[in-house]
Amino acid sequence: MAAEKSAFEVCENRDLQELRRHARYIVGDRERADLMAAETIAIMSGTPARMIANERPKQRNLRAFYHLNPGILQSQTGLAFSVLSLEILEGFSALQVLDILDLKQTQAVPAKVTARKLVQRPAGQRVMIVEHEALLAMEISEILTFNGNIIVGIARTSAQALECAKRVQPDLCFTGLHLADGSSGLETLVDFNGLTKCGPVIMLTSDASSVLRGVDPEPSFILEEPYTEEKLILMMALALKDPN
Length: 244
Description:
This protein is α/β, with parallel strands linked by helices. It is 54% helix and 10% strand. The protein folds into two domains: 7-120, PhyR, sigma-like (SL) domain (Butyryl-CoA Dehydrogenase, subunit A, domain 3, Up-down Bundle); 126-240, Rossmann fold, CATH 3.40.50. It has helices at 7-27, 30-45, 57-68, 76-88, 94-101, 105-120, 134-146, 158-168, 185-193, 229-240, and strands spanning 126-130, 150-155, 172-176, 201-205, 221-224. Strand 1, helix 7 and strand 2 (150-155) form a beta-alpha-beta unit. The termini are far apart.
């Protein structure tokens, strides 16, 4: 009988999942991002916590991640996407972002301006949506279309998604985890990875830990609920940018 995991081990795994998800946004290269995240958590597990009132472990781990990987912030693009991702995708306040990245306000403001310009670039992309909830698929479609993108297909199952993708060759795909016929968005991910002319896949889920299990298949890009316009457009920009 397998030994029950301790509360510390469970917490450590959750910390690593959160950091791997964020690192993949910023680094782009999944294997390198995972390695950077794992090294950060390994170092932090042996380092006394820097106690700050009301600070979440997530903030401490992200601060360590950027401290250990300063090259990320040396490029204008890396800095810009880091600032915006921490605010929009991770939910940190402006002051918390400054702390995590060890920035001054005078550095953060131009970084945000640059980031907003970069986020506008994905307009005109040919996007496919794989989602069994018709209303959600329609809402996402309307947001992406309003922002200048083209919806080239909507599917409800992984089989429909594969058939459509072979025909339309989308630049990018958003897929839900649980699909109409009991199939999974992970199947869609595997199928798309085998198609040379299809772009990246962004997984839509209510809980990133359900797909970050440490075994393949795992998505490189994960967007958790709620799926706001800001989040959807930023995720597109992150998925389509060159690896950092």
